[in-house]
Task: inverse folding
């Protein structure tokens, strides 16, 4: 068993706009162990979202090495990356990013559509149980527009969990929510972590970050030590 | 079921968009089908008309005649073509049938029914030459023609209007107040290559026509057919020389014109060709309009759904999954549109073709090609934007979604 789920070594990311290049990440080193709940904090523009996108395989680093679950992923093809995203990762976004025409239940099942095994009756039952557990048992047929922000984010959490991921990635999960819903969501995170799910969360809100077991602060493209 | 709902639920999310893209295809396919049916139908109608005027038939028409749009137009009345000219032409080798023709308007009456129609003075060979079938009675006898007998053969419409369903054979009708005995009725013929309705006429012996009915000493034309089509130009030459000599005219001031079926055919096919070129161009235009419509709507649809594509990619969809999804959507739209388009096109043809007296024709080849083309256009139109979208990084797509 690999103990370290994420190992980042000297990760840099440079954006090129015309002749001007801008280095967002300047040699990030990070190790995340299984079962951790890490919060990455920083002001806007500090590079925290870019870092999370790289960890989530949605973006590629300009240089550096990234070992995810014992596998070097920085040189994999798009297809292989899509496969890993589907199998090992779960995403939660600030803007929820639910598909508007699909019901809560359908949104939750969406990741399984891209698995060879397909969607079984069991999966459907599992999705219903997940929604029930997150307090949406009576809203499974509702469309995102019919749900409150907190409810939408809980659907997104269920969607992230349906594929039994090794790593849950959350980008400002409470950024669009009021304080009551924020607290609900972050408590769910803590429960999930206590059940053994590894979570990496990006936030700028210290009230939210304090629920995490470990906090790292990023500034101008690099971590600063406390 | 759920799998397909998750894949294609987005298709039915915006109904107006879906309906618009389907309508684009419907317009393309339906108009293509209709235009092709019309074109083919017009061609067949022309061919049918020409059939009544076989390739072995030739006309010698008095005066200077021009063929315009398949119609022989006599520019002035010429009185120099005589029955004796026809007699001389009969001597030419290779002629099968020959008939002098004098035609004019006439008032025809039976009891209280009166109508104005065309009176054609001909001989006993005319209906054999024109291949006009008789439904009742008999043809003229040679003795009746030479003996100035007042007998008549009625066109189909004339018989219907004068006699209804009663038997006309042996009855006496009045043509310009002169009594004629009906001896036969022609079958339905329709409009021939010279654009005259052959059902609206009465045939009488030409001898009676020029003497008793119209009181002239000339005829208007001579119809003849040849035994061997390959000799037609040779015979045309002989007739030309013979008549020029008899009328003492040269090529310049000729007082007669020879018209072959071929000449009429040439003009007719030319018109048909122009028509089919027109049909083809309009068809291509329809196709383009349909395809452009689908392209525009599909591009719009993909742009609108970039966020959806981004989400799906973030959740683990591969590029080919995205492509497959949009390919299936385009196929669905174009197939459905194509099917409805074909139905509407056929319905349109069923309504409009009979309205214009055109035969009902559905040319299978063009219909299949045009439908396939529309579907291919539609699919390309749908897939290309999706292909582009599937290549974009999911984070960019997700950012655009806000």
Result:
């Amino acid at each position: 068993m690999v103990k370290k789920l994420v190992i980042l070594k000297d990760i840099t990311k440079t954006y090129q706009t015309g002749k001007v290049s801008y280095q967002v990440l300047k040699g990030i080193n990070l190790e995340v162990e299984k079962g951790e709940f890490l919060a990455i904090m920083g002001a806007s523009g500090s590079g925290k979202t870019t870092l999370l996108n790289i960890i989530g395989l949605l973006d590629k680093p300009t240089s550096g090495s990234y070992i995810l679950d014992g596998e070097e992923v920085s040189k994999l093809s798009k297809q292989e990356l899509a496969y890993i995203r589907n199998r090992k990762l779960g995403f939660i976004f600030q803007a929820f990013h639910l598909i508007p025409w699909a019901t809560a239940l359908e949104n939750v099942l969406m990741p399984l559509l891209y698995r060879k095994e397909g969607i079984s009756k069991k999966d459907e039952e599992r999705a219903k149980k997940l929604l029930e557990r997150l307090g949406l048992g009576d809203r499974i047929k509702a469309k995102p527009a019919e749900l409150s922000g907190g409810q939408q984010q809980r659907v997104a959490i269920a969607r992230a969990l349906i594929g039994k991921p090794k790593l849950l990635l959350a980008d400002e999960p409470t950024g669009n929510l009021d304080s009551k819903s924020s607290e609900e969501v972050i408590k769910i995170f803590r429960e999930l972590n206590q059940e053994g799910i590894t979570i990496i969360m990006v936030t700028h809100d210290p009230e939210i970050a304090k629920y995490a077991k470990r906090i790292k602060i990023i500034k101008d493209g690099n971590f600063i030590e406390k | 079921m759920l799998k397909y709902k998750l894949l294609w639920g987005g298709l039915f999310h915006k109904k107006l968009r879906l309906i618009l893209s389907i309508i684009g295809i419907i317009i393309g396919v339906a108009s293509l089908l209709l235009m092709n049916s019309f074109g083919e139908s017009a061609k067949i109608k022309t061919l049918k008309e020409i059939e009544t005027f076989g390739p072995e038939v030739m006309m010698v028409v008095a005066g200077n005649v021009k063929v315009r749009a398949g119609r022989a137009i006599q520019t002035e009345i010429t009185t120099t073509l005589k029955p004796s000219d026809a007699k001389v032409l009969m001597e030419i080798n290779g002629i099968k049938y020959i008939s002098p023709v004098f035609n004019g308007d006439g008032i025809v009456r039976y009891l209280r029914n009166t109508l104005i129609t065309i009176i054609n003075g001909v001989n006993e060979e005319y209906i054999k030459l024109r291949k006009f079938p008789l439904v009742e009675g008999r043809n003229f006898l040679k003795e009746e023609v030479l003996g100035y007998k007042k007998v008549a053969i009625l066109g189909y419409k004339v018989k219907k209007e004068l006699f209804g369903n009663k038997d006309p054979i042996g009855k006496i009708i009045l043509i310009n107040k002169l009594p004629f005995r009906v001896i036969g009725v022609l079958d339905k013929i329709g409009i021939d290559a010279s654009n005259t309705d052959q059902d609206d006429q009465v045939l009488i012996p030409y001898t009676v026509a020029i003497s008793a009915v119209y009181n002239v000493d000339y005829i208007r034309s001579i119809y003849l057919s040849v035994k061997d089509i390959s000799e037609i130009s040779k015979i045309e030459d002989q007739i030309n020389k013979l008549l020029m000599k008899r009328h003492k005219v040269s090529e310049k001031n000729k007082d007669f014109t020879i018209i072959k079926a071929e000449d009429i055919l040439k003009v007719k096919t030319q018109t048909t060709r122009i028509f089919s070129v027109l049909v083809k161009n309009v068809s291509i235009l329809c196709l383009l309009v349909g395809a452009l419509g689908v392209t525009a709507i599909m591009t719009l649809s993909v742009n609108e759904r970039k966020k959806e594509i981004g989400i799906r990619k973030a959740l683990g969809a591969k590029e080919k999954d995205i492509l497959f999804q949009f390919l299936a959507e385009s196929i669905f739209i174009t197939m459905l549109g194509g099917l409805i388009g074909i139905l509407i096109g056929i319905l349109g043809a069923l309504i409009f073709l009979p309205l214009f007296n055109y035969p009902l024709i559905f040319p299978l080849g063009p219909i299949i090609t045009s439908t396939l083309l529309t579907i291919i256009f539609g699919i390309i139109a749908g897939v290309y934007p999706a292909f582009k979208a599937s290549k974009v990084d999911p984070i960019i797509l997700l950012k655009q979604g806000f």
